[in-house]
Every structure is written in C-alpha cells, then in structure tokens.
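Dear all,

This email documents one entry for the complex benchmark we are building for the journal club exercise. For each entry we list the sequence lines for every component of the assembly. Then comes the predicted three-dimensional structure of the complex as a token string, followed by one or two observations. Please use this as the template for your own entries, and keep the labels exactly as they appear.
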Amino acid sequence: MTTQAPPSTARAAGYARGRATREEILDAAMLLFGEVGYHTASLREVASRVGISHPGLLHHFSSKAVLLAAVLERRDEVDEAAFQADLDAGHDYFDALARIVERNAARPGIVELFATLSAEATSPDHPAHAFFQARYRTVVGSTTAEFERRRDEGRLRSGIDPDMAARLTVAVMDGMQIQWLLAADTPDDRPDMAEALRAQVAALLSD
Amino acid sequence: MTTQAPPSTARAAGYARGRATREEILDAAMLLFGEVGYHTASLREVASRVGISHPGLLHHFSSKAVLLAAVLERRDEVDEAAFQADLDAGHDYFDALARIVERNAARPGIVELFATLSAEATSPDHPAHAFFQARYRTVVGSTTAEFERRRDEGRLRSGIDPDMAARLTVAVMDGMQIQWLLAADTPDDRPDMAEALRAQVAALLSD
DNA sequence: CTTCCCGCTTACCACGTGGTCGGGATTCAA
DNA sequence: TTGAATCCCGACCACGTGGTAAGCGGGAAG
C-alpha cells in the first residue's frame, strides 16, 4: 500500500517466516469461518490451529475484522483467476461458472464460508456487509450481461428478463449450497450443485 | 405435552400473565435471531426487549436452545396453516407458495430468521440442525410431488427431473432471500421475491 | 560484531455470555 | 383468608471473548 521503498532492493514486507505463517493463518481462518461463521469463530481457535498464540495472530492481522477482510479478498482473487482462465481457455460463461461450483464442491470449507457469511453479512453493520453487496452486484451484473448476449442471439427463453434470469441463477447457486451443506451427513439426498446449475441455465435458455 | 389433567377444568398451563409474556418472548426472540443470528443473540437482549430480566426469561424457556426450538416450531405452524388455507381456498400450489413469500416480504424479521438460521444450522451440532434437515426434506418432497403431477399432465418442461425442479425452486426461494436482505439499504436493486418465484416456476413448466 | 526489526510469547484486562440459586411478589383456587 | 403455584428479580458464577502491554530470542543488514 505504501509508496515508500525499502532502502536498496525491492523486498516483500517482513521475513519469509512471517509471510508463511500469514498464509497459514488465512487458510485456517477460512476453514473455521466456514465451519462456525465469523461471529462464533474465535481468534484463539484460529491461532491454535496454526500453532501460535492469539496475540501472535494479532501481530499479523490487527483485528478480527481485518482478518475477515483478508480471507474474503484472497478467496475472491483465487476464484476470479480460475474463472478468467476457464473463459480464456474457450469455455462457455456458464460452463466456467459450473466449474467454479465443481471445484468448490471439493472444498466444503469454502462453501460453508460463503453460505454462512453471506447470510451473516446481511446485517448492515456486519464487517463484510459492503463486501458482499459489491460482490453480488458484480456477479449478477456480469451474468445479466451474458443473458443479454444470449437474448440477442435469440437463445433466451421468451418472457424472461435477463436481469431476472441472472438473479435466479445466482439464487440457485446460493440456495443449493444450503441444501448441499445441510445434507452433509445424509449423502443420499445430497444434490449435485454443478448439475443443478446446468439444469437451471438450461431451463432459462430456449430449446 | 403431558397427559396429566388439571384437577377439575381443562386449563392451559400457567396463569394468563405468564402465557402473554411467553408470547412476547417468542416474538422478540424471532426478531432478534433474525437480526443477528442465534449464536450472536443474547438472552439478556431478548429479555430486555420484553421488559424482563434474563433469569425471568429462563423461567419460561429453560435454555437458549429450547427457546430457539419454540420459535421455529411456532413459525412453522403459522406458515403451514396459512399455506393450507390458501390451498383449501382453491389456490394453485405454486400460487400458495408465492403468497407465503409475499407475506414474508412484509415481515423482514421472519426472512432474516430463516436465511440466517438455515445457514447457521448447516453445522451438524447446531441445535436447529435436525429441524432444518426435516424441514427441507418435507418441503422439497411436497414440491417434487407437485412437479410430478404437472409432468403427468405433460406440463413439466422436457428434460427436467421433478426432484431437480423442486430443489431448484426452493433454492431460488432461499437464494433470493439473501439478495433481498443484502439490498435492504439500496432499495433500487432489491428483487421482488414473489415475482422471482413465479418466474422460476414458469421457466420450469412448459409453454 | 553491533543494531534493529520481526515474530511471537506470557500475563493481563474489561466485558458479555448462558446458567444457577434463593427469595419476594402476585395470582389463583379452596 | 389461607396456601400453593406461578412469575419474576438481584446477585452470583465460571468461562470465553477481542484486544493490550511488555518483553524476549533470533535472523537480517550495516
């Protein structure tokens, strides 16, 4: 963030050790936030999973809210990068979306993170409230754009507004996460999230 | 619950006053659980909103988990009764569903309750875990049955499994709740939940 | 070798939590 | 009017929370 340059060589902040445990903290925090939510998760628990004390954690992230912001930011970067890579590799927009879902289905912690947090962050004073507002705006925005493209090609089902189609699609992704998580201990009626997304898109497009 | 009968006349448990504050407690708890979630909500806060002390609250509900169970149970009874009434009045199954959504849209507390809690109760050790598992089983079950009926009438879109259609439909309801809650302070891009549900059902049915 | 910063620890703090205990009002039936 | 049940309160408890203060050892840079 600062423009100030280190004395001689351009160097990443801190020592290698510090950067490493910082990453470990982010991993552990992501998992725990997913497991129990942001409010319920404690800094001591995160720290203990990394093998340090909780003031040790606060040395890297000055407060719990700062930790949360870092977790969300990094998580978004990873997903966004993979999504763009799929797009550049020639994949369909919705295919790329489904592939995100598929990848997440293999990492229950991430699914829990976003399902739990997006509900929690519904409160206007939640530290992640603005983050999720912005996130939904961009994702339904770009999905709307995609549906508009399909409509111009005559491939959107008649009588459906592209914006509504987009909202329904992301609603399906969120809603299926809950059904998927809730059925974690009864695998028989556990839905396939990616298949559900594809079925939803198919229902919204014509033919 | 008990079969034991009072001495002479059949009488509701406790005094009138007690039953009244019990109701007040349930109302306040429902709102607060919706606002901040079950874990974050405190018995003292609920009690203070009713104007009593927190041991006073515990006199009516012996523990926090018991309170939660009572809130959910009562909420489900109310919704179920209204739903059945709509059905008996000759309304379409999906119309009746949409009317539930419409009613809830006028009571943000209820929407927050279920959105927050269903995500929270995702954890297997959450006191409401079993409740939500059962709830989803019955609601996607009955919705699946309805879609099967439509399919037999040739009104279900080809290539869509009734069970999948049901899951997508309830996923849309859940997912739209999050988008709706998240946009509470920016009414311009706040979706119409009932309209979304109707659009979703329309997309799943043929013609 | 010295100096400085980084990584992290132990000890501590104020505070909010769910829950318990014992007792004082209030209310109802007899 | 007595007596019992109900309703509710103030005080208390053990515990977990996020955050702070002070310091110590070790690696990096001059």
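Observations: Chain A has a mean pLDDT of 92. Chain A touches chain B through 52 residues (CB under 8 Å).
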